[in-house]
Request: fold
Amino acid sequence: MNKKNFYLLLLTLCPFSCTPHTSRSAQEVFRKWFECQLVMPHKDIKTTIDQDDQTFMEALKNTYQHNSAHIRHLAPLLAKLTAHHINDHGYTLTLPVAPLLKANFANLYHLIANDMGGFVTLLKGSYLSNSDYVQREAGLSYVNNIDTHIALMQILFANHKKSDQMEHLFSVANHFFQYCFSPATFPAFERLLLEKEHYPITRMLYTTMWYNLSSDGWKFWHQASLKALQQKAAAGYRIVYIAGGSDIYQLLKAGIYNVTNIDPQLPSQPAYYTEGWEFLLKGTGAYGGVGDTITLPFETTTITMQRSAYKEIGGTFKARLSSGKTIEIPKSLTVWTIADSNGNKLGEYTIERRFCEQHDFHAQPKTQLLISFNELHFVSLPSFLNGWNIDTTRLPEDFSIIVKQLAQPVGKAILNNMHIASILSHTDFKYLSLGTSIN
Amino acid sequence: MVMKQYAHGIIVGLSLATSTIFAVTTKHECEVFGKWHLWQQVFEHKNIAQLADTLTDDSAAHRIKNQYEHYRTSLGPVIPFLSKLSNQSISTSGYQFQTPLDAEVKNNFSMLYHAIEHDMPQFIGTLALNGITSPENQLNDAKEPVNITIEKYKALASFLLMQEDPFQASAYSLAFANKMFEYAYYNATFPHYQNLLSSHHKYPLARFVNTTLWYNLVGDGWKQWHKEALDGIRTKAAQGNEIVYLAGGTDIYQFLREGMYAITIIDPFLPTQAPYYSEGWAFLLEGENLGQGIGDCIQCGPDCKSIRLQRARVQEYDTFTSKLSNKTVATFKKSTVTWDIYDAHNKPVGHVIIHRRPVVQSDLSPANNVTLVASYDELTYMAMPDILNGWGIDPSLIPATTEIYVKQLRKPVNRDIMCNIRIASLLNFTDLRFINLASDPT
Reply:
């Protein structure tokens, strides 16, 4: 061993013997994820109709009452869909349920699940495309339009179990996403972004995706995406989580232990981080808290994370905070070694504190990219729309990224279509951005 | 009746008075439309697939050789493609063509011609598979100035079409550009073209398409008419339709020559665009003497059936401002000038009405008896969004039934096509960043 290596070894060993380490429980570091994260199963949206009549009517009544202030101007649409249980004068949401109401709702669910093109065609013939309504909606503030379309979907998927409704709407948002950005149906959606007479439909699609995948859905995982990640991990792949914040808990719980997280960890974003995000990044002890531990008891096993390295890797990056202030942050690397209850190493969680760059999207062998929907949107944006300077046109043809909230991975074509949609949204549609702040 | 005659008498009297008080000017059509005589051409459509038939004669090898020699300085970076196309007759070390052409060369060219005519995505795919998207050509595109890249792709198109006669070369180039336009902007194949604009490694193909469109429909093609466009407009005129030429400048000579006499022009007549107008453009708008030029005449020759245009009315309105190509903003007075048209026997046969103002959205929602016409360059500005200096027209608001005849295109365009141009212009701006789709390419 030469002299240099000897000193390095000394530096590495020293923290364990010379400085106090911090041990934290999973609750202390990841409490927010315990409280708000859900793993959404694939939900057959047609099952909404399976509620018994009384339960369904009760749910519809409660949901309508709760949302009526936002949706009164859509009474003609609801009147038609509900066989006049809801109408211009109010509502009569009592039994018996008109068979037509259930048939209409069942048809909507069927179309969303199996024929989104048919669903859009149906809406083109509905009150949503009535010229007076189109004009009226164009005159509303975008906040009012968001409220309207959230309310509409809440009513269409009224459910006595709130969790079921959330799962259904999460699935609906997935169906909408596939329709909007898949190559087969993108040309039709692209036209919706230009044609003013269909903007209420486009707003409904955008609002539903934004609310369920980004605004409220930013914290949720799709069961299918977790499963796909598990399969990759089992096949020996390292998961590279682009802009993953401190969102590691579900991965560890799912038995995924080799993860690299590339994220600037901006101090202005704690709303999206767990309370222990700073601790995950760097400890207060010597050498950035090397030796610190986190214990995570799961149902069948307990694992331990131990900080095995922290170093500032040279250079800084500038970050503009949401406050408008620009700060300079040193680039750093944090490594947590993950071990089972017997101390056997299971894997490593690495945090690269920096902005993601173009090369990060050109996957290395045996790596699988992962991202959350909100961040996917920023990856797709062109620079002039405050995107992250990722050139989607340069991605390899076999590019594939698993998205936390989506049932299916996203390929280059879909990302390109999101890119195009963001441009048309800026020049023509001018509604909300699919990736925006926390609800 | 008596009153009517009396009123008519007053109008005649006033007209006579006007013409006696203010001198009128009479110009020959050459003084007003001379540039059109010299520059404008009308091309029949050409079936590109039929070019395969010309490969069978003995001169084919000579033509290929001549064309290659003519364009070879620009074609260096695409030699790998040309080498495959010519069955190694062209290579980096030189060229040598057999006479007669060998069967494989004929077959390769024939296949390309067939694909251009019937299956443009296949044509594009063939270029991609045979070297146009090679890293070497990508690098060449990236490092060379844009005008060199334009020349390369112009040369490639010209070489493929292999026309030695300049008129035939222009005719085939226009036909090729028409096929390319239909590929790029028709709904059926727009996603394919859009994919070229969204895939960095396919950018040489996108540059080839955009160069072909720009050069043949704008750069060189701005002055050319497609015969089928003229035929279509003539048919509409014969049905009694008013021909409304959006941003048509002084480009009415072809209509007059074809005997179309119900013409409206809507154009701001920006002075910076004078190179694209006939020399008498200012005379068309206003007289040279006092009195608004009422009574001024343009006398046409036998090519134009010896008709006479006489300025009958001039109305002035409020002003409009326009950003000129020299970046200044200027203010102009809106006006309407009506020229009555008389035949050789002095019988009134129609009119040319010139509205001096920019085109507005409502102009693209015409009445049933109106046929819209535009030139390709101006069509592009109508489709482009404001951020690209478009004209504030929203193509999605154009009625689905509206058709616009485009001077250079064999088939009219509609709202769908204009929406696709709008999308492509944005991707050109944000991603491809090659030449402008209209006007000056750089």
In short: The interface with chain B takes residues 183, 186-187, 190-191, 194-196, 382, 384, 391-394, 397, 412-413, 416, 419-420, 423-424, 427-428 of chain A (CB under 8 Å). The CA atoms of residues 142 and 432 of chain A lie 7 Å apart. Chain A has two domains: 42-218, 221-429.
